[in-house]
Amino acid sequence: MLETLIAKYGLLAILIGSGIEGETVVFLGGVSAHRHLLPFWGVAAAAAIGSFVSDQIFFFLGRRASSLGFVQRLTSHAVAARGKALLERYPTGFILAFRFIYGMRTVSPVIIGLSSVSARRFAVLNAVAAVVWGVMISAAGYLFSNAIEAVLGRLHLHVHLIIGLVFAVAVGGLLLIWSRWGLGKAP
């Protein structure tokens, strides 16, 4: 389904999808760029912009709409407490890294919005992190496709996308297992 949306709507699907589905959409965008269906830098830019905008929206939900049930439910989870502790200890590092920490993507900008971090500081750091994230995840999809092609030869697009999706899900599952095992242990 994601590959159909990317094929039909191109960079617009990457732009919107990067804020909603995140890594999977951008990774598949990188695969599509490898197949010359989309321009690589267009995929990376759409991913960065979509990520930046969605995180800004969540930041302002935390800042201005903290009484909404959605925000209260989001911030009541244990992952929110871990994010808040990381933010208090390493504010700049956390803002630059939260989109790379599995399970922290949506809740983190809300937590940051609830904190004393200024909107300007968040916007600047969010922009830097969104660009790095957009390029890295797009490149991962592009390079993974290149590796598959080198090993298996030129495959149909849907085979590349399926292999890429299976790889992304496997890596995500491993990261989830690692994060629950690693973050759940006492120091």
What do you see in this structure?
The chain has 187 residues and is an all-alpha fold. It has ten helices and no strands. It has helices at residues 2-9, 11-20, 23-34, 40-64, 69-75, 78-89, 91-97, 107-114, 119-152, 157-184. Helix 1 (2-9) packs across helix 2 (11-20), helix 3 crosses helix 9 (119-152) and helix 4 (40-64) packs across helix 8 (107-114).
Write a concise synopsis of the structure shown.
The protein is an all-alpha fold and 187 residues long. Helix content is 81%, strand content 0%. 34% of the residues are buried.
- Secondary structure: number of strands: 0
Anisotropy-based shape: globular
Number of domains: 1
Strand pairing plus helix content: what structural class? Answer: mainly alpha
Indicate the mean pLDDT.
Answer: 82
End-to-end Cα distance, whole Å, is 42 Å
Helix content: over 70%
Unreliable stretches: 183-187
| Topology order in helix (H) and strand (E) letters | HHHHHHHHHH
Rounded to an integer in angstroms, the radius of gyration calculated over CA atoms is 17 Å
The quaternary organization reads as single chain
Beta-strand content estimate:
under 5%
The count of helical stretches stands at 10
| Main pleated sheet | none
